[in-house]
Amino acid sequence: xxxxxxxxxxxxxxxxxxxxxxxxxxxxxxxxxxxxxxxxxxxxxxxxxxxxxxxxxxxxxxxxxxxxxxxxxxxxxxxxxxxxxxxxxxxxxxxxxxxxxxxxxxxxxxxxxxxxxxxxxxxxxxxxxxxxxxxxxxxxxxxxxxxxxxxxxxxxxxxxxxxxxxxxxxxxxxxxxxxxxxxxxxx
Length: 187
Fold this sequence. Notes:
The protein is an alpha+beta fold. It contains two helices and nine strands; from the N terminus they run H-H-E-E-E-E-E-E-E-E-E.
């Protein structure tokens, strides 16, 4: 009994057709807003992790500050590198804050600022709520542990809520450990 197998040419043609179909159909099935919201969520997670890692590597407190406009609307975040480690929890003042250097940042004069209103990657995405023990910021100590005011460890779970037209997400930062989790939520 002779078995017929597929030739290499036949397999390559089928794979090419499936690849072409996927390349044409996937962008139509997932709208651009989905990519924007997911990019914003990934950016916040990556930069929270970066602030935590930088605090550990440099053995200095780093503050992750969410930014508000004059109406109190959240529109981005910054990483602060306070020179006086005892004043990391002082009231935020955008004009004289000691931002962490980010030489690759465009339009921020080398300061580590991510502004959703200015960044084309995050069009249509908004930060709807932030809470870290009653603050709109979280700091990381020299061991990478999350802090609230007064040098005390963050004991409760901090939350960041973000949304776009295609859905909403909840980021949670665990007290004590700084572990970050994310889940899609209904709003």
